[in-house]
Amino acid sequence: MAKITLDNLAHSYFPNPKSEDDFALKELNHVWADGEAYALLGSSGCGKSTLLNIISGLLHPSQGRILFDDVDVTAATTAERNIAQVFQFPVVYDTMTVRDNLAFPLKNRGESPQYIAERVQQIGAMIGMEHELDRRARGLTADAKQKISLGRGMVREDVNALLFDEPLTVIDPHMKWELRTQLKSLHHEFGHTMIYVTHDQTEALTFADKVVVMYDGRVVQIGTPEELFEKPEHTFVGYFIGSPGMNVISADVEGNMANIHGVSVGLGQSYASMQGKVEIGVRPEFVTLTDGEGLPVKVRRVEDVGRHKIVRADLFGKDINIVANEDTSISPDMNRVIFDPAKVNVYENDWLKEGEAA
Ligand code: ADP
Ligand code: MG
Description:
By secondary structure, the chain is of the alpha+beta class.
């Protein structure tokens, strides 16, 4: 297992990148702590696979260095880096049995037949294929083949890191949950450094100790699930995480007050004056619908989602979402909202602005 350091890393798929836009991965400095489980989360095309392939050595970065435990591996191959990587779609040897597919990485390393037999049995059980070990991979479903790929990724105990690139995409929903749980227990057991790429926030938040959120080729925040929820450092993190995501509302901010279309809203902190685009962010969980004072809203729809209700409303021509208790009855005269001041974040040009105690 290893600590992985990215030093001034950037990548462009163009031979002569001219501007920042030409970079699929913008300049990045980051240390992945030894033995930690990370999720790399972001929407399609934001650069997740690019970053993962640079870490594994499949892709050579146009700029910067990669260090494993302070040793520069930028020029090293994947094999030299001693990494296991699982891709979105199955990579299996069709003519081999499931058992031989799983045993392959261990045979390559010259492990003893007895150890291989035991380990393959154990991994076979983890991926729920212990009764199919003697079947040939050919003819198995995509789902089963992907489980073999996952198993092959997990079979070696001595890798520096385990990298997963959206590995559960072709797996059926029930098995997804099961396999994710297995991956987590594998992490607890062996303490590998793991990076798990996904575009699914639920997957990211349930799998990882730390979530690395990417947006448009950039890492915009690294934090625990709680940190991403409480203090999104970028408006993208705010609305990408949470369901529904954070409400982002244009405002003028002065001191500890925000002004939204002439209505004043109290903030938990006091802010220095800002340049450019100023917005406040408040999660639907911290917005309360009321018939008293507050910002005027027009309720459009109420969705009952079991443990709570999601109220879809209009605030000065823009959407606003409110999460209400399941036993709150929503009457027509509830046409105002108030925010919990301590839970309102302030953003300047999309980045979180730190305030001072008001
Ligand atoms: P993600 O895995 O987050 O969906 P990728 O890392 O695959 O994103 O892609 C990031 C960006 O780089 C996208 O704009 C994509 O079109 C581009 N890209 C990815 N692979 C290549 C490639 N081999 N050649 C050129 N552009 C690429
Ligand atoms: Mg990808």
